[in-house]
Amino acid sequence: MLNMFGRKYRINPDTLRIEEARLPVKKRAIVWVTAVFLIAGIAVGMRMLYDNHAKSPRLVYYEKQNHQLRDNYESLSFELRNDEQMLAELRRKDDRLYRSIFGMDPLPASIREAGTGGAVMHSSLNSISDPGVVVDVFDKLDKVLMKARIQSSSFEDLEEAALQNQQLLACKPMIQPISPADQVWLTSSFGYRIDPFTKMRRAHHGIDLAGQIGLKIHATGDGVVSIAGHNRRSGYGREVVVDHGFGYQSRYAHLHEILVEPGEKIKRGQVIGTLGSSGRSTGPHLHYEITQKGRPINPFYHFFEDLTPEEYNLIASKVK
Questions:
Q1: 170 phi-psi bin (left φ>0, alpha ψ -120 to 50, beta other)
Q2: I need a surface site. Which of 13, 45, 80, 162 has the fewest CB within 10 A?
Q3: C-beta atoms surrounding 275 within 10 Å
Q4: What's 141-154 look like in SS3?
Q5: Is 276 exposed, middle or buried (0-12, 13-18, 19+ CB in 10 A)?
Q6: Which fold has domain 185-317?
Q7: CA 98 to CA 104: how far, in whole Å?
Q8: Dist. CA 80–CA 85, nearest whole Å
Q9: What is the 3 state secondary structure string of the chain?
Q10: Cβ distance 192 to 204 under 8 Å?
Q11: What pLDDT digit, counting tens, does each position of 186-207 carry?
């Protein structure tokens, strides 16, 4: 066996010639198959090594998007926490201030902390790998939205109460029936007194303001005239009774002249008659009384006594 230039040669015993030595076909096939498997194994190993230690551009892109989404969710979660704090402050002011102004009870905690059912609504998110941040944000969003709806409903109730209160303030008897610019004096106060006719002690359900005949008598609040005429049975003479709503009524008695009619809608400050001495009267005066749900109350509790004549005239001048 000779070895020349990297090749192997042998002497053929039959021909006595030098020939290149060759492996049998079977052995050559085994060599080739072994070489192919060896190369394939090396290729697979290199690919696995690359995949484990080197990231593809697509993987890099997806990881970047994932980090960005996570940052966005955390930022949103932070904003939702701020919104929850703002809602908590609104809730505190709503219960302790706004609702108390209109005599409304605070909303019960069972309503304030109403559940959202978020665990069921967002169960589909559990199929996401590492869904913790996403589910947490959705749960916070649900709670904020529910609390915002409850607070919005509370504000609607407050708005309705404010409108009713505005109507009450307009209708409630709250000014003097005679302008401070006119000279009058108190001759009888609210409470028990000696009746000038019977000389017996009896309740006086209003106040008496004496003055000159013809002084203008003003409605002390918005309302509807329920009585306007001569009451002979009670001794009030010519009187006007105004129904102000909300349980309030006001009476103006012993008038000289009546300037309104039953059923007429009137405004605070409107002239409804003039001071007189009709009915059981010892002299020109106005008997003025207020009832709330049928119960007489002291009219002095419903006076703005510090109104100047100019301010009083301004109220009267706004009546159309």
A1: alpha
A2: 13
A3: 25
A4: HHHHHHHHHHHHHH
A5: buried
A6: Glucose Permease (Domain IIA) (2.70.70)
A7: 9
A8: 9
A9: CEEECCEEEEEECCCCEEEECCCCHHHHHHHHHHHHHHHHHHHHHHHHHHHHHCCCHHHHHHHHHHHHHHHHHHHHHHHHHHHHHHHHHHHHHHHHHHHHHCCCCCCCHHHHCCCCCHHHHCHHHHHCCCCHHHHHHHHHHHHHHHHHHHHHHHHHHHHHHHHHHHHHHHHCCCCCCCCCCCCCEEEECCEEEECCCCCCEEEECCEEEECCCCCEEECCCCEEEEEEEEECCCCCEEEEEEEEECCEEEEEECEEEECCCCCCEECCCCEEEEEECCCCCCCCEEEEEEEECCEEECHHHHCCCCCCHHHHHHHHHCCC
A10: yes
A11: 888 887 777 776 677 778 889 9
Query: What's the gap between Cα 264 and its chain centre?
Result: 38
The pair of structure tokens assigned to 284 is 């020109």
The answer on pLDDT for 125 being more than 90 is no
Sign of CA pseudo-dihedral 255, 256, 258, 262? positive
Number of C-beta neighbours around residue 168 at 10 A: 17
How far is the CA of 226 from the CAs of 127, 239, 245, 259, in angstroms? 72, 11, 11, 13
* pLDDT at residue 155 tops 60: yes
Q: What is the CA radius of gyration of the chain?
A: 49
The predicted pLDDT at position 120 comes to 47
As given in the structure block, the two tokens for residue 90 are 């609104």
User: Angle at which helices 132-171 and 57-93 pack, to 10 degrees?
Assistant: 30
User: Would you mind telling me the total number of residues written for the chain in this entry?
Assistant: 320
Instruction: Give 317's contacts (C-beta < 8 A, 6+ positions apart).
Output: 269
